[in-house]
Amino acid sequence: MIEGKVDRKEGRISAIEIRDVETSLEQLGQALRAAVDASLEVMAADTGARDQIYQLWEKKLGEGWSYLKQKSQEKGINPLAGLSYNRLRQAIPG
Question: Are 6 and 13 in contact (CB under 8 A)?
Fold first, then answer.
């Protein structure tokens, strides 16, 4: 678990903690791509498994969303609150 270390004088988080967040998000991205690839392979090979795949995605995304909501309430900060839909769309290649 990453705990930010805030410099009380400056009120900023040092670069090492930002790198920790970046590393965690990169790992999340890799895991997400692997899950997408595996889901597509299973769904292409066995159309009967689609409902199971949908249920797995719903369960895991729901668990992640629940964790985000719980932690956001505990800390009083939502790490997604500052996201911009337009910036996200611009970040999508192609």
Answer: yes
